[in-house]
Specification:
Helix content: 25-40%
Strand order of the largest sheet: 3-2-1-8
Protein name: Cysteine synthase 2-like isoform X3
Radius of gyration: 21 Å
Distance between the termini: 26 Å
Largest sheet: 4 strands, parallel
Organism: Nicotiana tabacum (Common tobacco)
Shape: globular
Number of strands: 12
Order of helices and strands: HEHEHEHEEEEEHEHEHHEHHEH
Strand content: 5-15%
């Protein structure tokens, strides 16, 4: 099952329009590694809005190309820590502020649709006056904020979770998924736990992410990392859109029984296994989720029903995850003939 990000963006955009925070002709901004932004770029024009996406420049190039084909403005930036003002999420927030300020200047008033345009998510626009990157025809800006926006959680609690329960007839033993924003794993796990507390819910975490440590040890970092020996770029991984080193408002709502770690090599091998034996052309997040499903299956033993999410297509990962030259350069050339890379014959 591939879960589109369209649902949560529809919910958020509709409520923003109803409240006046977003007006027709306005611009919706988002910081994204690609998939949610593609959904947003698809939905925004239906509401008469533009879309501006800030994306890390190490994300697969084809994601930017898809966004541009959908009519979105794409701003590729270097990957930095979320604490840095130029993290892609922080820039996206500023772009919404800039668009709102420009609209305010054009109308020579301090408020847009009754909302204070000088604040978006408690961030002031006073220091952003020099960065006016939007057309004067735009009618304000709105930051979708997928990481902290609880419409993300609700879309999976109200949609994906019930869909899983219905499709399995309530007869499932475990659910596992990786987390980026945390909306999927939080919404699904909370719904399933409310239906049957005995359903086990797990996280699968890629290299460089701190969530495994948080779930299993209660801290984001190991002692060595806390002492300053953490890699400057913690996301030195081929996976995209999953793994994070902070606890989002969405992830806080997750009801988890444990966590597993996966490797880049396992994700690459799993993607080729699924293509060869199941005819599934999945992206890096889906492959990692399936690595997690096998880990849970091994832990629980035979006779259990385990559910995961296929959330991205291989079509968005051609330049890196399915690029033989890129994989060879990073020591990730797949060679398995079965599932021996996970200890199965």
């Amino acid at each position: 099952m591939e879960v589109p990000g369209v649902d949560l963006l529809l919910i958020k955009s509709t409520k923003a329009l109803e409240s006046g925070a977003l007006a027709e002709g306005g611009v919706v901004t988002e910081g994204s590694a690609g998939s949610t932004a593609i959904s947003l770029a698809t939905v925004a024009p239906a509401y008469g809005c533009r879309c501006h996406v800030v994306i890390p420049d190490d994300a697969a190039l084809e994601k930017s190309q898809i966004l541009e084909a959908l009519g979105a403005a794409v701003e590729r930036v270097r990957p930095v820590s979320i604490t840095h003002r130029d993290h892609f999420v922080n820039i996206a927030r500023r772009r919404a502020l800039e668009a709102s300020e420009l609209a305010s200047i054009c109308r020579n008033e301090n408020q847009i649709n009754g909302n204070d345009s000088s604040q978006i998510n408690d961030h002031s626009i006073s220091e952003e006056k020099q960065n006016m990157n939007f057309s004067r025809e735009y009618k304000g800006g709105f930051f979708a904020d997928q990481f902290e926006n609880l419409a993300n959680f609700r879309s999976h609690y109200e949609g994906t979770g019930p869909e899983i329960w219905e499709q399995t007839g309530g007869k499932l033993d475990a659910f596992i998924a990786a987390a980026g924003t945390g909306g999927t794993v939080a919404g699904v796990s909370q719904f399933l736990k409310e239906k049957n507390f005995n359903v086990k819910c797990f996280l699968i975490d890629p290299p460089g992410s701190g969530l495994f440590n948080k779930v299993t040890r209660g801290v984001m970092y190991t002692r060595e990392e806390a002492e300053g020996r953490r890699l400057k770029n913690p996301f030195d991984t081929i996976t995209e859109g999953i793994g994070i080193n902070r606890i989002t408002e969405n992830f806080k709502l997750a009801k988890l029984d444990g966590a597993f770690q996966g490797t880049d090599m396992e994700a690459v091998e799993m993607s080729r296994y699924l293509l060869k034996y199941d005819g599934l052309f999945v992206g890096s997040s889906s492959a990692m989720n399936c690595v997690g499903a096998v880990r849970v299956a091994k832990a629980l033993g035979p006779g259990h029903t385990i559910v995961t999410i296929l959330c991205d297509s291989g079509m968005r990962h051609l330049s890196k995850f399915y690029n033989a030259e890129y994989l060879s350069e990073h020591g990730l050339t797949p060679s398995a003939t079965g599932l021996e890379f996970l200890g199965l014959s």
